[in-house]
Each structure stands twice: as C-alpha cells, then as structure tokens.
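Researcher: Here's the sequence for the chain we discussed earlier.
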Amino acid sequence: ADGRAAAAAGVTAAEGTGDGSMAAAWLAVLGLAELLAGDPSVAAVHFTTARDAALERGLPEPWRTRVDADLVEALVAAGRLDEAEAALESFRARAAAAQTPWAIAAAARSEALVRIARGEPGAAHEALRGAAATIESLPLPLERGRCLLAWGIALRDAGRLNAARAALTTAREAFAALPSPPWEDRAVAAM
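Model: Thanks. This is the structure I predict for it:
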C-alpha cells in the first residue's frame, strides 16, 4: 500500500507541475505496484496511460518506456488475452524497430506469458529460448529473474517438472539477491 500511495503522489505532483513525461513514469511505477499487489486490471489502466503518453511524446522505443512488457503481463493476469495479444503486437513491432536487446528479450517474455495463458507451453518455451541468452548478457537482474520465472512456468505447464523447479529456484534466488520480495513470492508460488 505504501508503494502505491507514493506512486500515486508522484503522479499527482507531476501532473500538478505539467510534467507529462514524469507523470507517465510515475504511472508506470503505480502500475507495477498494482500488479504486484494483485490488481492487474487497475495496473493495466496505468500501464496503458503511461505507454500512450510516452508514444504521444515521441518516445516509442520500448527501452525508454519499459512499460510495454508490464502492460502485456497485467492484461494476461487480468485474463484479457485478446488485448494482451494486441499490446504484444505493438510492443514487438517497436522492439524490432528499436533493435535493443532488452526490448527484444522483454517482447519474447511477453510472448511467452501470452502463450502460457493460452495453454501453449511449447510455444512459450520457444519464445523464451532466444531471450535467455540475451538476458544473460545484460546487466538487468530483475528482467533476468522475470524471464526465468516465465521459463519455469512454461516448463511446468509442459510437464517438465524437474527443469521447471530448477528454473523457478534460480528465479527465486535472482529475486532474493536484489532483493525483490514480491517477485520472489511469485517464483515460490509458481513452484
């Protein structure tokens, strides 16, 4: 609740000064706080508003907004799979145009989440295969943990339980090292 209150205060302060870019950044923080608090529908509203504001300001590169993957994840968690697919397609196109390793890997993770939700663990595994090597080469431990979490879930859903447990354990350890208790809790819950 404290994180959500602080982020909401940040949105209000930024809007009060007319700083739309900072308001969009705070909306993304608020969206993540809502997602981690278990309210993906509210999170999706915040992420959509933040993404649209960034695009309106001419900042379409996914690596600058960093909200696209979170938006897809929130829509998947809310069970809004058709909207998640549409958001994914938009993100994937901008990631391909930007050609930044983070964006490409995050788009692959987003694809995996949609495929998992649609009951297609093999397709999710395939989407994550390319992301794994890219993420390992980047100094982004949270994104690495999130990819491992998605990887573990895809393996679990494909019936590869030993491999899933190993991936989910590694994800939990990555989150614990940050530390990021909400993400660590998600990895434990997926085991």
